[in-house]
């Protein structure tokens, strides 16, 4: 499948050949989609600018599960037929598997090109067939090796992750392992296909590592500067707009339990939220496209207007994204603990070199070490792993109908269903009007009220009619649609 497509660019000020490139405010961390060969060089030149040396260390993470080759300088990926134009959730793909898949994909493309007279067949995201005359064919690895001629400090590392759920604990460790030993000003670039969810998640992880470096390196240094109130620089004091809805603030039940369980859990959530907001859209202080926390709440609002099949898919996506948010907070707690341990772990003979006038230790960022892996941190807290698995679905998926309104409808249905049907429909919609008063006027609100009316009428049907309708729905002879249910309740067989 061709990676590029019409309208892939969602952000202003595009970098030629690299979709949705942007810098995270306050960090030397950059996010983007899969570049063309020319796009790679354009990005690296922009990141270095006139100050950072082109032979200096630059870290580039590729978070894609699907392997890439480059045809005439443009990226093409290998995907199963059912994943064309869809999120590429390909299962337990490791770096080694992805690298092997890339090498095999290159061989397959070479073979098909030869068999097809120098042309290669592919599809775009809309499954439109393409036939490309191949002038140049390279693997992603070959492209990276070519870039190292101009940027010898470039380190390209694959950390394949899925789209919605959290990266594995080992994936967090792989990112950290690559960043250990780098300076605070070392550029970090992270890509997926478009520069959306996977890349944004990776950027949050990279920024949290940079926060660890800042905390462990500069806390002592800042305290020696006259007139500086160090408490003002604490990122764990970040406060979101209290007027936001609780879901937009990330106050899910499973997250609240995590925060109350972790040491300094509230501070860990505050720091994580600050970094997520910096990686989000302009309305939360970012420069990006995807807001990892608020996207959950937006999906939850959309859930109310979907049909059953769409709801089943969206419910899994919402729970996966809560799972991701939960693990990002947990990782933040791990990084905060790591900062404390890093300061304490300095050897006595080194402390003299690194100790400042105030007696605090200021360790250069590239000398910081992690005393244990995130995998170990999670294994030491197995209850937290179990908590998210059982609690990520703990949401109110449907709005509760007020008991008085339900009792009134049940009484009308039980007294004389057909005679009272007009009043039943009137009262259902009157109740819906009150229940969905918080939603803005428009199609979404109309669909939510209509869906509520369909479900509520189904709920209060007389037992015999309800059994009949349920059987027809199960047999795909009808759907749970208000007018279809009304038709079945009012239609009579002609004599």
Features of the shown structure:
495 residues; five-stranded mixed sheet; three-stranded antiparallel sheet; 17 helices; single chain; alpha/beta
Report the uncertain regions. Answer: 220-233
Broad shape: globular
Gap between N and C termini, in Å?
A: 59 Å
Strands across the major sheet, in which order?
1-2-10-3-9
DSSP, total strands:
10
Number of helical segments with 4 or more residues: 17
Query: Share of helix among residues?
Result: 40-55%
Strand fraction equals 5-15%
The residue-averaged pLDDT reads 88
Instruction: Give the topology string: H per helix, E per strand.
Output: EEHEEEHEEEHEHEHHHHHHHHHHHHH
Tell me the major beta sheet: 5 strands, mixed
Q: Decide which structural class fits the backbone.
A: alpha/beta
Rg: 27 Å
């Amino acid at each position: 499948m061709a990676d590029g497509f019409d309208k892939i660019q969602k952000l202003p000020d595009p970098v030629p050949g690299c979709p949705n490139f942007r810098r995270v405010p306050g960090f030397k961390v950059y996010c983007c989609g899969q570049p063309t060969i020319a796009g790679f060089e354009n990005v690296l030149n922009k990141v270095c600018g006139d100050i950072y040396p082109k032979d200096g260390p630059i870290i580039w993470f590729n978070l894609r599960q699907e392997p890439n080759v480059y045809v005439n300088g443009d990226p093409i990926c290998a995907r199963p037929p059912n994943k064309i134009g869809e999120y590429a959730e390909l299962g337990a793909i490791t770096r080694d598997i992805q690298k092997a898949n890339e090498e095999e994909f290159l061989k397959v493309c070479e073979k098909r090109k030869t068999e097809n007279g120098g042309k290669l067949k592919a599809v775009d995201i809309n499954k439109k067939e393409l036939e490309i005359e191949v002038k140049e064919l390279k693997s992603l690895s070959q492209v990276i090796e070519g870039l190292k001629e101009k940027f010898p400090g470039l380190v390209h590392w694959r950390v394949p992750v899925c789209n919605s759920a959290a990266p594995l604990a080992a994936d967090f460790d792989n990112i950290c392992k690559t960043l250990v030993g780098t300076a605070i000003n070392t550029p970090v670039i992270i890509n997926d296909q478009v520069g959306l969810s996977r890349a944004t998640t990776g950027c949050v992880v990279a920024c949290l590592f940079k926060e660890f470096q800042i905390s462990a390196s500069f806390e002592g240094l800042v305290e020696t500067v006259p007139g500086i109130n160090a408490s003002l620089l604490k990122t764990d004091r970040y406060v979101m707009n209290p007027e936001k809805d609780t879901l937009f603030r990330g106050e899910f039940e499973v997250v609240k339990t995590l925060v109350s369980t972790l040491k300094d859990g509230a501070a860990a959530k505050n720091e994580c939220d600050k970094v997520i907001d910096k990686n989000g859209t302009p309305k939360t202080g970012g420069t990006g496209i995807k807001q990892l926390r608020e996207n959950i709440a937006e999906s939850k609002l959309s859930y109310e207007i979907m049909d059953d099949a769409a709801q089943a898919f969206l419910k899994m996506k919402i729970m996966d994204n809560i799972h991701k948010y939960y693990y990002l907070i947990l990782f933040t707690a791990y990084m905060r603990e790591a900062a404390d341990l890093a300061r304490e772990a300095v050897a006595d003979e080194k402390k003299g070199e690194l100790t400042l006038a105030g007696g605090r230790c200021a360790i250069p960022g590239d000398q910081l070490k992690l005393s244990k892996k995130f995998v170990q941190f999670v294994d030491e807290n197995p209850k937290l792993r179990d908590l998210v698995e059982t609690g990520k679905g703990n949401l109110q998926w449907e709005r509760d109908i007020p008991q008085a309104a339900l009792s009134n409808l049940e009484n009308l249905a039980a007294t004389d269903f057909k005679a009272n049907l007009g009043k039943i429909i009137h009262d259902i919609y009157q109740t819906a009007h009150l229940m969905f008063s918080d939603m803005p006027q428009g199609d979404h609100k109309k669909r939510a009220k209509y869906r509520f009316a369909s479900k509520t009428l189904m709920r209060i049907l007389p037992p015999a009619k309800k059994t009949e309708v349920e059987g027809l729905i199960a047999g795909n002879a009808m759907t749970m649609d208000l007018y279809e249910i009304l038709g079945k309740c009012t239609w009579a067989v002609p004599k």
